[in-house]
Structure formats: structure tokens, C-alpha cells
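Quick note —
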Amino acid sequence: MTEPSKVSNAFDVTGKHVLITGGARGIGYMMAEGLLRAGAVVFISTRKPDAAKDAEHSLSEHGEVHAVAADVATEDGRRALIDAVAAKTDHLDALINNAGATWGATFDDFPDSAWDKVLGLNVKAPFALAQLARPLLEAAAREGSPARIINVGSVDGLAVPNFENYSYAASKAAVHHLTRQLAANLAPSILVNAIAPGPFPTKMMKWALDERGDEIAAANPLRRIGRPEDIAAMVIFLVAPASSYVTGAVIPLDGGLTTTMSVALSEPTASSQEV
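Predicted structure written out below.
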């Protein structure tokens, strides 16, 4: 029989120590604010010292937050980030790999550098950070209460995008499968899941929303784009005890955009009707 206390505390993240890369803006900032409001202690990273200072100042009104200026696209930056976190805490309940880059260009003009930059930050960095943060995550893990790694993927890794962002879409599909492999290898002490967001009001999406915002919203079954509270609720669930039996999952957070999509079919030919 279910214990009432376990149900009532299922979404409690009070006191959890959570590191979010790319937490100074966009989805990372939304996650940070939501977790702070729910009582977590949050560490965020961003490349620029000024951005780190500004984000820490604005987020501090919601709870205890520590911002670190570190470029997680580099090995030195990743080590500096984990060292900075370890200087303030002896454990991490969750690592959220959110920092990412995109690149748009036509097929004929798509450069080699777009692959190196995007796959390096979007795929290699989450793996390397998981390696570096593992001791802190293992220190937080208890029997029946695993630590968490949450990777931020994308609907562009689930379906073919409408934009020519070849390395980005490929990187997010890779993040989804990396999530599954890490989940298999790090269980039972660390759960690894991914969120695949659809359109949200971020700097990365700004140009698309400015040009085609109404069209993008209309194409969604819920007729809207994502809101900060949507991503906040999802990440709270994945950090909280409520998700303790979930690992290796890639969860679309897109209003049904990918889960209800249909395929346009051409008129069947006589031969295609014969089965």
C-alpha cells in the first residue's frame, strides 16, 4: 500500500543541489527559476562573467543560487565548472546539461565548422560533464533515492525540422540516444533522462518566432508555444522523488507537436495498393 508521506513529498525538491549549464538565459534560466522557487539550491554556468553576475543577481530573489563563468565547450572550462561547484558543496543531486549551440545554413553552404562547434558542445560536453560530476552525483545518491542527470534534447532530434540546421538536429538525436546508454550504465545510483522541448520563447528561437510565430503556434495541437512554467514543472518532476522509477526516457515537451504528427501521403498507385 502506498505510504501517504511518500505521495505528499513526491514533488519536493527542497534543499536539492542542482547544476544547470547554460542557466543564464532561455530554457536554462526558466529551469533555474522554477527550481529555486521550489526550494532547490541551484548552480548555473554561462560563458560570460557579466552574464553570470547578472543572472545570479536576478535569480537570487527566488532562492540560493551560485553562478559560475565557464565555457563548457572546452575541457578546461568543464573542469573549472565542476571544481567551482565542488568548492561549495560535497554533492550534487542533479546535473542538467542544457548549454547548447545551433547553426543554420543551406545544404550546399553548410560548413565543417558547424559540425565541430555544435556536436562538441551539444554531445561531447554533456558526456564529459557527466564523467566529471559523477563523484558529486554518487555522493548524493542513496538507496531508493538516486541522483539525476537530465539532458536537454529537442523535438528537432525526434522529427525532421522545417529549418536547415543539420548539425543541430543530428546532435539532439545523438543526445537522446546518449541518454539511453548512460541510463543503462549509470543505474541504479544515477537516473538519466532527457527533455525534448518544442518551441519556447528563447533567444535561439527568437528569429523564428518573430518571422513565423503565429504559424508555429497554429501548427501545435495546443495552439501555443511553451511557457516557462511548462519547463519548470517538467524539470521539477525529473529531479523530485516522483520520477525515481523513470530512467532512459526522452520526454517530448512540445504540446503534442511530435507525438500527434501525421505523415502527408501521396495518392496511392495501383501497385502500392497490392499487399
